[in-house]
Amino acid sequence: MIIDKLNRRMYKTKSFLCVGLDTDHKLIPKRFRKLKHPVFAFNKWIIDQTHQYVIAYKPNIAFYEAASPKGLHQLTRTVSYIRKHYPDIVTICDAKRADIGNSSERYATAIFDKIGFDAVTLNPYLGYDSLEPFLSRKDKACIILCKTSNPGSKDFQDLLVGLIPLWKVVAKTVVEKWNTNNNCMMVVGATYPAELKAVRKIAGDMPFLVPGVGKQGGSIEDVFNNGLTAKKRGVIINSSRGIIYADDPKKEAQLVASSCKAFM
Amino acid sequence: MIIDKLNRRMYKTKSFLCVGLDTDHKLIPKRFRKLKHPVFAFNKWIIDQTHQYVIAYKPNIAFYEAASPKGLHQLTRTVSYIRKHYPDIVTICDAKRADIGNSSERYATAIFDKIGFDAVTLNPYLGYDSLEPFLSRKDKACIILCKTSNPGSKDFQDLLVGLIPLWKVVAKTVVEKWNTNNNCMMVVGATYPAELKAVRKIAGDMPFLVPGVGKQGGSIEDVFNNGLTAKKRGVIINSSRGIIYADDPKKEAQLVASSCKAFM
Questions:
Q1: Partner A contacted by B153 (CB < 8 A)
Q2: Run of H or E residues at B18
C-alpha cells in the first residue's frame, strides 16, 4: 500500500527526491527561533517550498528526541501537516529500530500509530521476530538496513559468510523471507555503487532508500546507473542538510529533481 | 566510571539483579491509573520497594515512546528520582540505538544528557563510527548487543564468518577495538548458556547485561555457571515483568537477589 503510494508519487512528480528533515533547533534561521514551535515552523516552511519536487519526507527521530519532550511534539505536528496538506507524499521515520517483540510492538505503536508515519527504517541484527511487529503491518512499510552509507558499514556488513558478504545475506533474507506482505524496502548507501547494483539484482522491483549522496560522497549518477529497476524506478534518494540548510531550499530541491528526470 | 559504580554496588548488595522498568500504563494497578503521572508513580513504588536488592534499573524506552510525549516526561522523572534517592544504582536505557554519527550524537544527547541515564544499549550492525558518539563518553557506559536472547538472534548473529559466528566477531571487536575508554559491556542472552561461556572467555572482567531469565526460558543457574568472571562477578541479570507485575515485587526481587548470593 505504501509502496504503491510511493510509486504513484514517483510517476506523478518524475522525481526520486526524499528530503531528510533532520532539523536542529540551533541551525535553523533566527526568524524561526523566536516562534512558539520553531522546529515545526521551519519544517512547514521547508515542506511548503519543496513538496512539488518530493516523493518522501524523512525526519530522523534522533533530532527530535534530543529536544524532547517538545521535540517529539513538533515531529508529530510535522507528520500531521504532511498527511493533511500533501497526503500523497510518503512519510518515513528514520529510527533504525529493532528490539525483542514486546518492545518492538511499542515502537510500532509510537511510530505508526501515535506519530502517524507511513514507513520506518529498521535494523536487522536481532533477526525476524524482532521486526515482526513492524513487518506484520500491511498498511505500513518497513525499510531494512542492508548496506549502510557510513565507513563503519565495513566492520560487520562486509564480513564474508561462506562466499557472500553479510549485507547480501540480509538482502536475500528480506526478499525471500520477510517480504510476505509486500511492504519491505531496503537501505543501500549511495557511497557503495557496486553493492547497490548487486542488491538490485536480488531485489527485483523493491524500492531502496539511498542515503549518502552529497557530503558523504555518493553521486546521483552512480545511484541511477546501479540502483534503478528495469522500469527505471525504485530508488528514493535522500538529501538532508544539502536541502534544508541551503540558501534556497526550493531551488536545491528542484535541481535534484530535474537531475532525476534525465535518467527516467 | 559507571562500571566501577556497578561493581561497587554488586559488592555492597551481593546481588546481580537489574529490574526492567518496562512499564505499560494499561498493566499497572488501578490505584496508580487515577494519578497525574501514573507511570512515574508506579515506577517510584517499584523502586522504593526493590532498591535494596537491585544493582541497576533498566527502562526500555519503547514503552515510554509509545506513550509520548507524556511517557518520556515520566521516564525523565523516573531517572531523576533514582539519581536523587538511590545514586549508587546504575540506570540503563534499553534503547538498542545505532545511527550514522550525526544522528547518534543526538541520541547520546537525548539519553545521556537530557534524560540523564548512566548507560545505554547499542546495536553493532552499522559499525564503529555509528557508535563513536556513545563510546567516546568516558563518563557513561555502552552496552553492545552481542548474542541476544530472542529466537531470531539465530538469523544473522549465528552465521559463520570463516570458522566463527558473527556474535563472536562482535565480542572480539568490542573487547579488542571499541573498549579504549573501558566503558563497554555486552548483551548476552541467558537463553544461550554455551554462547555466554564463550563470550566470557573473550571478555575477561567485562560485565554482561543478561536478559532472558524467566519467561524467555533462561535459568539463573546457567547464567552463573557460564557467565561469571574469575572473581565471581560480571553479570547483570535482568528481570522485567517477573518483578514489576508480581503480586509482591519486593518479595520477588529479594528472591532473585538471595538466589545470587549462593553463587558468590
A1: yes
A2: strand B17-19
Extract the C-alpha cell encoding A195: 553493492
How far is residue B76's CA from residue B163's CA, in Å, rounded to a whole number? 45
ipTM tops the 0.95 cut: yes
Chain B hits for A164, Cβ within 8 Å? none
Hey, are the CB atoms on B166 and A156 less than 8 Å from each other?
yes
Asked if the C-beta of B146 comes within 8 angstroms of chain A's C-beta atoms, the answer is no
**A63, three cell numbers:** 533530532
Phi-psi region of B214 (alpha: psi -120 to 50; beta: other; left: phi over 0): left
pLDDT digits over B106-155, tens only?
999 999 999 999 999 999 999 999 999 999 999 999 999 999 999 999 99
Distance from CA of B151 to the nearest CA of A (A): 7
Q: Average pLDDT, stretch B1-25?
A: 96
Task: Give the cell for residue B98.
Answer: 545505532
Predicted confidence (pLDDT) per residue in B227-259, tens digit: 999 999 999 999 999 999 999 999 999 999 998
Cβ–Cβ under 8 Å, residues A68 and B64:
no
List residues bridging with B185 in a β-sheet.
B143
What 8-state DSSP symbol labels residue A36? S
Segment (H or E) for B161: strand B160-161
Q: Are A104 and B62 in contact (CB under 8 A)?
A: yes
Q: Do strands A119-122 and A141-147 pair parallel, antiparallel, or not at all (unpaired)?
A: parallel
**Measured distance CA(B112)–CA(B90) in Å, rounded:** 13
Interior CA angle at B51 toward B45 and B52, to 5°?
Answer: 135
Written as one string, the DSSP assignment of chain A is -HHHHHHHHHHHH---EEE-----GGGS-HHHHTSSSHHHHHHHHHHHHHGGG-SEE--BHHHHHTTTTHHHHHHHHHHHHHHHH-TTSEEEEEEEE---HHHHHHHHIIIIIII--SEEEE--TT-HHHHHHHHT-TTSEEEEEEE-SSTTHHHHHT-EETTEEHHHHHHHHIIIII-TTS-EEEEE-TT-HHHHHHHHHHHTT--EEE--BSTTSB-HHHHHHHH--TTS--EEEEESHHHHTSSSHHHHHHHHHHHHHTT-
Q: Which residues pair with A142 in a beta bridge?
A: A120, A184
CA B181 to chain centre: 19
> Between helices A193-203 and A220-227, what is the axis angle to 10°?
30
Instruction: Report pTM.
Output: 0.98
In angstroms, the CA A39 to CA A37 distance is 6
CA angle, corner A145, sides to B160 and B125, nearest 5? Answer: 50
CB–CB of B5/B90 below 8 Å?
yes
Q: Is B87 on the interface with A (CB under 8 A)?
A: no
Name the percent of chain A in helix, strand, coil, to the closest 5.
Answer: 50, 15, 35
